[in-house]
Amino acid sequence: MNQRRLIFFTVFGLYQLFVFFFVIYVESRKDLGDLLSLYNQVKLFKYGALLGLVLLLIDVVWNLLESRNAKREQEALRHENNTLKAKVYDLQQTSKPEPNTTPSAGSKS
């Protein structure tokens, strides 16, 4: 895994940990006043959820690009392998002695 991907997953993991601990904190606070005070901050929750969706979308697009590049690279390697096989086959054919096609004197053709 390259360094950019590792940094991305670190940010994504920290985001998920933050959301998890925040939910545990809200759940542990049974006071209705605390929950009502959080209601004033709902727009921050919307932006946080949007951030999570954007990070997920980035990962999906990144994965599609990597798989497309890997498929292209595999196809190029397969083509190169077939080309090399053809060259080896041609070299083997030219190194074989040509069979003598002239009929012998005692045989009828």
What do these coordinates show?
With 109 residues, this protein is mainly alpha-helical. Helix content is 81%, strand content 0%. The longest helix has 54 residues, at 42-95. It is rod-shaped, with a radius of gyration of 34 Å. The mean pLDDT is 81.
Through-space gap between termini: 70 Å
Question: How many H/I helical runs?
Answer: 3
Q: What letter string, H or E per element, gives the SSE order?
A: HHH
Residue share in helix: over 70%
Residue windows where pLDDT falls under 50 for at least 5 positions: none
Cα-based radius of gyration, to the nearest Å:
34 Å
What is the overall shape? rod-shaped
Relative strand content: under 5%
Mean pLDDT: 81
Q: Biggest sheet, open or closed, and with what strands and sense? A: none
Number of strands: 0
Secondary structural class: mainly alpha
Please give a handful of descriptors for the protein shown.
109 residues, mainly alpha, rod-shaped
Task: Write a brief structural summary.
With 109 residues, the protein is mostly helical. 81% of the residues lie in helices and 0% in strands.
Any chance you could write out the topology, listing elements then pairs?
Elements: H1 3-28, H2 32-39, H3 42-95
